[in-house]
Specification:
Blueprint: E1 5-8, H1 12-22, E2 28-31, E3 45-47, H2 48-54, E4 63-67, E5 69-73, E6 80-84, H3 85-88, E7 91-94, H4 96-109, E8 113-115, E9 118-125, E10 130-137
Parallel strand pairs: 1-2, 2-8
Antiparallel strand pairs: 3-7, 4-7, 5-6, 9-10
Helix pairs in contact: 1-4
């Protein structure tokens, strides 16, 4: 099967890339070794600029909480420092499972193909281009 773009990994970066490409009529293939998108790790704390990029409203169910201050704890010394929102801007805690499902649904609705439980074990390439990938289906 030929695809213009093959994305290895359905973490936040891979999902956002798949969504962005699909919105520009590029139908890609996403290969993920886990059984679904919610099994991969995703950062959850972000700011308003990220919400704009992801096209997510502050009132979306994906935004599980707004933070007005952050406490930073040094693991080495145990010192604590509180950072107010006026310093770092308002922060948002996202539900990573809902965020990844949201990105996947948009990409799929625009023609992206997802293959789960598929581990990429090798990349075939010519002098200039990647010409394919070798995968192993996980159990």
């Amino acid at each position: 099967m030929n695809h213009g773009v093959c994305i290895v990994g359905a973490g936040l970066g891979g999902l956002f890339l798949a969504k962005s490409l699909s919105e520009n009529d590029v139908h890609s293939l996403v290969l993920e070794r886990n059984k679904n998108v919610t099994d991969s790790i995703c950062g959850e704390l972000t700011d308003e600029n990220t919400l704009k990029i992801l096209e997510i409203s502050k009132d979306s169910e994906i935004v599980s909480n707004r933070l007005h201050r952050t406490k930073v704890i040094s693991l080495d010394s145990g010192k604590k420092m509180e950072v107010q929102a006026k310093v770092i801007g308002e922060q948002y805690l996202l539900d990573s499972s809902l965020l990844k499902e949201y990105l996947k649904e948009i990409a799929e609705s625009n023609g992206t193909t997802f293959k789960f439980k598929t581990n990429v074990v090798n990349v075939a390439k010519s002098d200039v281009f990647i010409t394919g990938v070798k995968t192993v289906k996980e159990n």
